[in-house]
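Continuing from the previous page...

OK, I double-checked the sequence for histidine kinase against my notes and this is the correct one:
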Amino acid sequence: MRLTIFHKLFISLMFISLIMMAGMALLINNSFQNGLQSYLNQSEIEKIETLAERISDYYSAQKGWKGIQGEPKLWAQLLQNIGEHPSPSKNHPERKNYKPSFNRLEARLNLLNKSGKSIIGNPKNLRRLHNNIQITKIPVINNNRTVGWLSVIQRESIKGRLAERFLRQQLDNFYWIAAWAALFSFIVAALLVRHFLKPLKNLDSAAKSLSNGNFDYQIDVRGKDELAELSIAFNLLTTTLKTQKHSREQWLSDISHELRTPIAVLLSEIEAIEDGIRKPEPKYISSLHDQVMTLTRLVDDLYSLSLSDSGVLIDTTHKVDITNIISNITNQNEVRLADKHIAIERLYDNNQCSLLHADAKSIAQLIGNLFENSYRYTNPNGQIHINLQQTPDCIVLTIEDSAPGVPDDALPKLFDRLYRVDKSRSRANGGSGLGLSICENIVKMHHGDISAQHSKLGGLKITISLPIKDN
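Thanks. Re-ran it with the corrected sequence; updated structure tokens here:
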């Protein structure tokens, strides 16, 4: 049989409740018996103290104990005065074969003289018979001196039909109360466990719904306990998965669209050559080559993006000089910049050394992508400014260019994959829409920050902050 969490919690609560009630029953039973016996013994002591006062008066009147030994009626009268019922007199018809019960005070009471010798009562009472019996002596005081003792033997446990019946009645009442308490605990435990497990059932339903592809399921969060935090985390997970699903679908749609255009051009050009509409002249071969290169760049960017996503590009065990990387990239593109009449200006000391723990290849790709982005989307006769600043904790790299600029609503989307401000123009410039996404991944892998703003030159400004030490 499979035990659910409900059964386990319910059994645990009931087991603890039953153990506690059983322990309480034992403690209450023991405490009640001891308390009742102590009360009965103390009641007897109070009676005997009253008896001692009256015997003291008799002692004063008789000048000693001789008179009381031969006066059983007087002893019986004294016992009656404290509420006891002594045994019948010698001439009474019930006196024959009469043995007072040991539970009665008369059978356990002795009057002793000053030296402790028994005057009235059974001398055997002066010996402690067993561990369950204790002997208590009450002094008889006359003229501020002890003239005798009243000795009584008392039990440490309850004896006697009346006391036992009273005890049994009270215990029966307690057992009934305990039974009702157990039933009440049973019901309350079931309700509490059901209430506490309700969030888990909601989580179970949500998990099953999520496994079936329903990303719109949200758990109604109540309270501030751990289960509420778990429900909030699950809702966040559902929202994240829904966003990722949408991004994945959009990503596949965008990739399909990006691949469809060059493939369609390639197919139409090849079919035209095959059908004899066009001859395999150099200009048509060059067009085919351009489309193949577009596909190649797109595939290379996709591959680089997948590598940056997985983090395999990172190797921060060596120091990298960013100044040197920037110089190499600008030197490699001098001819291209001159052809487009774009002036590049470095707003820092070219001889300064800016070292940080980073992966050399990925940093070179980062700066190369940013430079390529500025080159492609800067109008002829434009400008590119590169600035490099160093603080004790990080290096801040800024690359900004001149017109054309970027609309305000496009700035937050520049790092989205395959996003282009002007798709037709971007595709014509050879851009895949993945360059800035790759840059963002590389910066994040180095625990840095990257942002886009409007440039004072009229174009786009990209700011990157990279920590000097590897985190």
